[in-house]
Amino acid sequence: MIPSLVSGIPRAHDSVPRVVDDLRSAGVVPPTTTWRAPLPLPPLIDPEAPRRPPIRYEVRRMDKSGRLMARPLLDYLGWPPRQRLEVRLDEGVLTLTPGEDCDDTVYIDNRAHLRLRARLRRDLAVQDADDFLLAADPTGATLLMFTPIAVAALLRPWTAPLEENHPA
Hints:
The chain has a domain at about 55-155: Chemotaxis protein chec (3-Layer(aba) Sandwich). It is about 30% helix and about 25% strand. The protein contains five helices and eight strands, in the order ααββαββββαββα. The strands form two sheets. The chain has a five-stranded antiparallel β-sheet with strand order 1-7-8-4-3. Strands 2-6-5 form a three-stranded antiparallel β-sheet. Strand 3 and strand 4 form a beta hairpin. About 15% of the residues are buried. The model has no long low-confidence stretch (mean pLDDT about 80).
């Protein structure tokens, strides 16, 4: 007797399709859509273009003796300890490349740290604990060192409005 009583009670999930069909025919529920495959994305990298290793960036702090611990970037460039470096200075940016006939204003010491001589530090107006932005380009065998003044100049278009709103 109980099964006949239970079978007479409508179940909630039985009525759901009918309610949805009624709402769909009334225009309340949109018609059933079928999922389509997503459109293909354009390739981000041209497979025919020659690939070059990416430029790697790091920020390194100079200690009181003018050392920057930059071993990962020096390894990335393939520069061994005691590598002589040619230095070009352009508006607060040092461009370092391997060289033979160069002075030792910047050099790699035995522990693979970059060392800046005191004379160059004075010329650059850098102090202990200043941070440098380093960019290593293995294709060009070049390391760029951006001084704090150069980084501030590069970021000035974005930081100038902040400085105007909150003067020191």
